[in-house]
Amino acid sequence: MNDRRLTPRLTALCLALCLSGCASLAPEVPKADAGIPAAWPLPATTIEASAVLPAAEASAPDAAADIGWRDFFADPELQSLIARALEANRDLRVAVLNVERARAQYRVQRADQLPTLGVSGLASRGGGPGNLAPDAYSIRLGITDFELDFFGRVRDLSRAALQQYLAQTETRQTAQLVLIAEVASAYLQLAGDRALLAVAQATLAIQEEEFRLAEQRHALGAISGLDLEQARTTVETARADAARSAGDVARDVNALNLLTATPGAVPPSPDAFDLDRTFGLPALPAGLPSEVLLRRPDVMAAEHRLRAANADIGAARAAFFPSIRLTASVGSASDALTRLAGGGTGFWSLQPSINLPIFDNGRLQGNLDMALADQEIALAEYEQAIQTGFREVADALALSRTLVQQRKAQQALVEAAAKANQLSLARFKAGRDNYQVQLDTQRTLFAARQALVSTVLAEQINRITLYKVLGGGWLERSQ
User: Fold this and answer.
1) Above 50 in pLDDT, residue 45?
2) CB of 249 within 8 A of CB of 266?
3) What is the Cα–Cα distance from 312 to 214, expressed in whole angstroms?
4) Which 3 state secondary structure label does DSSP give 60?
5) Which pairs from 460-463 meet CB under 8 Å and 24+ separation?
């Protein structure tokens, strides 16, 4: 075994075995049958939506996924809050670390496809009567327990690990997208609650002024005590509404601070709630194909998990076949350290081993059955992700039209209520109506203003929701 001419042959044999392989035993990836229409039933480019959404040509089906969040959210303060949240939010940090862990796991699994070379050295000295334990020195370079992947088991395990890594990457994208939408929604909720607080405070100031006038009129005998107490109820109602709105504002600030993981990150006085606030999402074309759902990171993550489960089936099937492992080494050995590099000390060894499963009490079949069940589960989850995404987009598209109509009606209601309040006040001062009529018109106007703010807030948040469910938001800048 000391013939050095065998060393190149041994090396060539090892390389050939490493590069050898056969087709994977994994089945074809099953196609999802989510049972959804080819397009959403409600077009987004309606006459009502065009009055609010920016004027644009019909966008490409994947335009929403390519719009960066800095281009979609034009408010600089909101951009700053989103950037802080992406940097410091704990949930997103966990998602990022899960990606790193999956990447490391894939690297570990991929390393099993190639032989591991190692150098080892041995030195021993002994003594006794008759020199029963002579000295021995050796150094060797070898491959230890390398599996020859004839049936693709190791390769399928590596593919499964790769798909799991890609799934974790998409899961991180989903977490980032959800976080951006939550920060934007919380910011708009804060703006809306501050607008409601401003309406309540303005109403309270008006009610307090009218109550002072009512006290003077009561002192002169122009109104009864009942009218005075009714005026007092409007003051206290407005004061309670103002206090409740102030509490909502404080909770909104706390929610934003938690999302950004930075106390005091919320600006003390953001811009007033703008009824004409727009975002960078162009009007969507009628008949938008449902394939855009495949761009959503959660759907892509479900697809990667399905592919991982499919690869696990191939590995489970390959386990039924014989496995061949190889241990080989070349080196030098001598009874003296000084002659270790001399001539005639070289050696090589080749130790293949084969394992053929015959009876394992059903363990291999159980593993295969479990892999098949996991594939069915992953397929169902993939189809469910598509169905959920379709419904979310359909709901957001439906609301995009109805909320525009609701906002227009609410604006008309505010204008009518304001005019009615002016006429009622004039009739009350002229003595044509009692104070109860004036109180009713004031309550109607106050409620209409609150409803208008709430409707506009719902409209803005729905645009964020539409942007999120179409799969946009994980890019910082548009492509």
Assistant:
1) no
2) no
3) 81
4) coil
5) 460/188, 460/277, 461/185, 461/188, 461/189, 462/396, 462/399, 462/400, 462/403, 463/279, 463/281, 463/400
Residue-wise pLDDT for 316-343, tens only, equals: 999 999 888 888 888 888 777 767 777 7
Say how far apart CA 324 and CA 314 lie, in whole Å. 17
Work out the number of other CB atoms within 10 angstroms of the CB of residue 76. 11
CB 453 within 8 A of CB 273: yes
Q: What is the separation of C-alpha 299 from the centre of its chain, rounded to a whole number of angstroms?
A: 10
- What is the rounded (10 degree) CA torsion for 264, 266, 270, 275? -160
| Alpha-carbon span 117 to 144, nearest angstrom | 8
The sign one gets for the Cα dihedral 275, 280, 286, 292 is negative
Query: In the chain, what percentage of residues exceed pLDDT 70?
Result: 82
Query: What tokens appear for 97 in the block?
Result: 């670390």
Helices 225-260 and 153-219: crossing angle, nearest 10°?
Answer: 160
CA distance 59 to 92: 30
DSSP 337: G
- Whose CA is closest to 134, among 333, 331, 336, 332? 336
* 6 — pLDDT class (breaks 50, 70, 90): very low
Coil/strand/helix, residue 344: coil
pTM beyond 0.85 = no
Q: Determine the Cα–Cα distance for residues 165 and 105; give it in Å rounded to an integer.
A: 8
Q: Amino acid letter at 396?
A: A
Number of neighbours of residue 361 by Cβ within 10 angstroms: 7
| Alpha helical stretches, state H, 112-152 | none
DSSP string across 260-294: HT-TT-S-SSPPPPPTT---S-PPPPTT-BGGGGG
Question: Rounded distance, CA 116 to CA 110, Å?
Answer: 12
- Reported as type and span, the H/E element at residue 181 is helix 153-219
Q: What tokens does 316 get?
A: 């489970």
Strand 136-148's sheet: what is its strand order?
Answer: 117-124, 136-148, 323-334, 346-355
Helices 225-260, 435-469: axis angle to 10 degrees equals: 10
Q: With pLDDT > 90 as the criterion, what percentage of the chain qualifies?
A: 17
- The residue type found at 167 is A
Per-residue pLDDT at 380 exceeds 90: yes
CA-based angle 457:271:412, to the nearest 5?
A: 40
What is residue 295's DSSP assignment? G
* Residue whose C-alpha is closest to residue 267's, from 211, 216, 194: 194
